[in-house]
Design goal:
Blueprint (H helix, E strand, L loop, with lengths): L1 H6 L3 E2 L2 E2 L6 H11 L19 H18 L3 H10 L2 E6 L4 E5 L5 H21 L3 E3 L8 E3 L12 H17 L1
Antiparallel strand pairs: 1-2, 3-4, 5-6
The structure holds zinc ion.
């Protein structure tokens, strides 16, 4: 989700976004902002994890694949699972279950794990919780955790804008 929102979305909360000129810097800032440390792919991975420019460019491609999934494109997700080699596998000692091939490079490992997580959500009948904001001028994606899966907007600012738009539309008619 973070990948899609940082690297692929071209409009958010009613404003258009320039794609980040430096994807690596944008990603690292986003990781820091969300207080998320990318997990090393295995015990041989250096720490802390530094993305390369090439990693960041490939992750932008992954973000584009995943954005389609939030629009309900299950076939695209199946293709991505194959492309990134998603497979259950035990890594390290003590063994930890992950969903990428042993020896997968970092981008494929993250992509495979992310695709698997989305597939699990969809596979247990919760795919409608993977949503894209319905407000005009916003393509942000989110995971709807409301009890009846009724959330339509990424946040309050979009909800308020959409309400205002609907109000103006009613007044015109
Ligand atoms: Zn929004």
């Amino acid at each position: 989700m973070l990948l899609v929102n940082e690297l692929h979305v071209t409009q958010a909360r009613g404003r258009s976004l320039e794609p980040p000129a430096d994807r690596r810097a944008a990603l690292e800032a986003a990781f820091a902002h969300h207080d998320w440390t990318p997990v090393p792919r295995d015990e041989s991975d250096e720490s802390p994890v530094r993305l390369t420019v090439e990693d960041a460019d490939r992750l932008a491609g992954v973000a584009a694949e995943l954005h389609a999934v939030f629009g309900g494109d299950v076939a695209a997700l199946n293709r991505a699972l194959v492309r990134h080699g998603a497979v259950p596998s035990l890594h390290g000692d003590p063994p930890v279950l992950a969903f990428h091939r042993p020896g997968a490079d970092r981008v494929d490992a993250w992509a495979a794990d992310a695709c698997t997580a989305l597939a699990m959500v969809i596979g247990v009948g919760q795919g409608r919780r993977l949503r894209s904001c319905e407000a005009e001028g916003c393509d942000l994606v989110f995971f709807d955790v409301t009890r009846n899966a009724s959330r339509r907007f990424c946040g309050l600012s979009c909800q308020n804008r959409a309400k205002a738009t609907a109000y103006r539309a009613r007044r015109r008619t």
